[in-house]
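Your task:
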Amino acid sequence: MMDKLRSSGLRITAARLAVLSAISEKGQHRDAETIAVAAREKLGSLSTQAVYDNLNALAEAGLVRRIQPSGRAALYETRVGDNHHHLICRICGNAEDVDCAVGKMPCLEPVTNHGYMIDEAEVIYWGVCPHCQSG
């Protein structure tokens, strides 16, 4: 993780390492509160503002990706550098990665681009996960 921080040009700090480690170790798609709890387990103390500051710095550096599902807290993941999408359970909020759709799919290419050069489509699929279906 120190190599990732170094290569991104970010300063290596205990808080930044703890936040990045918390995202990686606790699994993908974690909200800031879950990340803060895990980072505090490593450091003993870390302010909520420091967690958000580090999440923002890591996202800006391209080391983590922020996903903002409608009506939900932002989620963070370490899978970056590809155009994958997400599947989110409406009941428990669990999120899974979904590789980019292939072939001609509706709504992935807009009717008009308004002059924009489009380089990414962000898609969130919503449904009910197998665990919540059985519960």
Observations:
- The chain has two domains: 2-77, 85-134.
- The two ends are 38 Å apart (CA to CA).
- Residues 62 and 81 are 8 Å apart (CA to CA).
